[in-house]
Write a structure and sequence with these properties.
This protein is of the alpha+beta class and 654 residues long. A seven-stranded mixed sheet has the order 17-19-20-22-21-23-24, with helices on one face. It has a five-stranded antiparallel sheet with strand order 2-1-5-4-3. A five-stranded antiparallel sheet has the order 7-6-10-9-8.
């Protein structure tokens, strides 16, 4: 039923019980309820229906179920602003999804009814005026003659044949014809706007119970055009039906209306794009005029009481600036006003009221400017809140600076120890080389004499030398400056190179799910060492066997490579030590704990970071996050992100 949305009028489809089967966008907007909520809902449950309309809809639904034809009729609804609106309802029986249904179209006639009401009131006022005059005329022909001749307005009596029967002195004076000339003429001879046929139709269709009012133009004998307002009614004149017409010249009114229109158009043009409300209020607190800004939030506000329209109050608003203008003679009033918006949120406005005076200096109205200062007040409140928290923030930052200073001193001590360790490691390599050479000599020269126990001792020495050499290599790697040589590569190439250097036990499965199409720039050798160390750690965490899964993906210009094992996972104590930045920390029986710190240095040198997630008995996931296109110069922080299973924890070092 997408075609329903092409209809500008609210349109729905209901079944025989009055349940909604389909709803268009206009109906959704009118009801303030989403289409999803409306479907299968009965129209009698709609809060926007007035009781009278609900009863009428129910009655007509019963008639339609009896097979009776229902002509279009009117209903009234309460829109989302609380205003009563009138609609013409048309319904047509259709087949919808294999069942009988009604398509219902609502045509908004609110403005038309309001215009008809105003026109009726105006006609009634004019009818009362003319009826009184006609009554006086009927009482006495002499009095009638005296009356119409004293009138400044043009008056004449017209026969049903379209000819003048009688005219007053004003008609002779205004039109320039003599009485005798006019009595040989008719309205069509002096009217320059209506044709003779149109005038005869007006005469023939003149209603008997009220006055007909319209505007037209008369032409004088000299050819001058005069705009007039005609008030006509059906009377009995000299025993026959006739038309009594009073023509009032409206030249000045037309000019005034044009001036007012120009001034209003100018005011509208000036205030149209002003992001503020502008309103003129009379002394009885009625809205004489409101600019477009206010009208869009309060349609139809002109002519209504300001405090009931804008603020839904029954009395004048507290601290009303307009009241101060009218009652206290203030020349200017400026104050702020807090209220709740239609969305239920607090709002603030600045109201500026000034008087409007007539030519004698009397205050006849007030001009009020409304400026939305909600954003300004919110900023002021936030500034106040920030000011209140500033002292606490300063104390917090002071404590952080002290902590940073402590870390800096610790880092300096660690740097000195690192330099010393590098020197010691370098010096240890010479005796280790000598021991390795001596062991090799004994193994090759005296292999036969050593026996099984001797060979086992030499193998133990060689293993100890290799392990010591690994510690020295890690120490040298951790302490030396990193210089990266970037080349384009992909995670699959680096992983394959790393796996070729690792002896994977038979009970360990390595699943490679990396993507070779994810190109990035990195130092391949150093990144390979990172892969080797992380995979080796995963293997060591699964002594009884398990699986290591390696995946890769690109997210927001960064490459994420995740190594996930099915090992025992890390305890909270282990994670807390990682979080606390304990240097050279390891849970293995052997080793110095250089593995992850070296990985961290290499990844951070690439402008990245390491993300660790671990859960006891479920395993550990280590994710390397590095930019696809690294910057040549970068200010880096050492960032570890530790996840305890209930959220990520971040700590940083310089």
């Amino acid at each position: 039923m997408a075609l329903l949305n092409f209809l500008a009028d609210p349109t729905v489809i209901v079944d025989e019980k009055g349940n909604f089967l389909a709803v268009n966008d206009a109906a959704e907007s009118l009801s303030g309820v989403s289409k999803k909520e409306l479907i299968d809902k009965n129209f009698l449950e709609m809060k926007i229906l007035t009781p009278e309309s609900k009863a009428l809809l129910l009655e007509n639904l019963r008639k339609r179920l009896q097979g009776l034809h229902i002509e279009p009729y009117e209903i009234s609804l309460i829109d989302r602003e609380g205003q009563t609106r009138y609609f013409e309802l048309k319904a047509k029986r259709i087949d919808y999804a294999g069942q009988p249904a009604d398509v219902v179209i609502l045509r908004d006639i609110t403005r038309r009814k309001e215009n008809l009401r105003r026109l009726k009131e105006y006609a009634e006022r004019m009818e009362e005026l003319v009826s009184e005059k006609v009554k006086q005329i009927r009482e006495s022909e002499e009095k009638y003659r005296e009356l119409i001749n004293k009138m400044n307005d043009t008056v004449w009596v017209i026969g049903l044949d379209g000819k003048f029967i009688d005219v007053n002195d004003a008609a002779v004076r205004v039109l320039g014809y003599s009485r005798a000339e006019l009595l040989r003429m008719g309205p069509s001879d002096i009217d320059s706007s209506l044709t003779k046929e149109q005038i005869l139709n007006l005469i023939r269709n003149m209603p008997a119970d009220h006055i007909q009012v319209f505007e037209t133009t008369h032409r004088t004998k000299e050819g001058k055009e005069i705009p007039v307002e005609i008030s006509s009614s059906l009377i009995t004149y000299q025993g026959k039906q006739a038309i009594l017409s009073i023509a009032r010249e409206i030249t000045e009114r037309k000019k005034m209306a044009e001036v007012i229109k120009r001034e209003r158009d100018l005011l509208e043009a000036v205030t149209e794009n002003v992001g503020a409300g502008l309103v003129i209020i009379s002394r009885d607190y009625r809205i004489l005029w409101a600019n477009k800004y206010l009208r869009q939030y309060n349609p139809g506000c002109e002519g209504k009481i300001c405090y009931s329209t804008f603020n839904h109050l029954t009395t004048v608003c507290p601290d009303c600036g307009v009241r101060k203008i009218f009652e206290e003679g203030a020349s200017l009033d400026r104050h702020e006003y807090a209220f709740t918006g239609i969305d239920g949120k607090p709002m603030w406005a600045e109201l500026i009221a000034t008087p409007i005076r007539d030519e004698r200096g009397n205050v006849v109205a007030a001009l009020e400017l409304t400026v939305d200062i909600t954003e300004k007040k919110q900023l002021q409140n936030k500034l106040k809140e920030y000011s209140e928290k500033l002292e606490h923030l300063v104390e917090q930052r002071t404590a952080q600076l002290r902590e940073a200073q402590s870390k800096l001193l610790k880092a300096e001590r660690l740097a000195t120890i690192g330099e010393l360790a590098a020197m010691v490691g370098h010096d240890l390599r010479n005796p280790l080389t000598g021991i390795m050479g001596a062991a090799y000599y004994l193994k090759t020269k005296y292999s036969a004499e050593l026996g099984a126990n001797g060979k086992e001792m030499l193998e133990t020495i060689e293993k100890a030398i290799r392990y010591s050499n690994k510690i020295i290599n890690d120490l040298m790697e951790y302490s030396r400056d990193l210089k990266l040589e970037y080349t384009e590569t992909n995670p699959k190439i680096i992983l394959q190179d790393a796996l070729s250097r690792i002896e994977v036990p038979e009970k360990i499965s390595v699943v490679d799910s990396t993507n070779a199409r994810l190109k990035f720039k990195a130092d391949k050798e150093k990144m390979r060492d990172v892969f080797v160390r992380i995979i080796q750690n995963a293997i060591d965490a699964m002594p009884k066997g398990g699986t290591v899964s390696i995946t890769s993906r690109k997210v927001n210009g960064k490459l994420e490579i995740t190594f996930k094992d099915t090992g025992a996972g890390m305890s909270k104590e282990t994670l807390s030590k990682l979080e606390g930045g304990v240097p050279l920390f390891t849970t293995k029986a052997r080793g110095m704990g250089f593995g992850l710190p070296i990985c961290r240095r290499i990844v951070e040198a690439h402008g990245g970071k390491i993300h660790v997630e671990s859960t006891i008995k479920k395993g550990t996931a280590v994710t390397i996050i590095i930019p696809v296109k690294p910057k040549t110069e970068r200010t880096r922080k050492e960032n570890w992100i530790i996840n305890k299973g209930d959220g990520a924890l971040v700590f940083s070092g310089v």
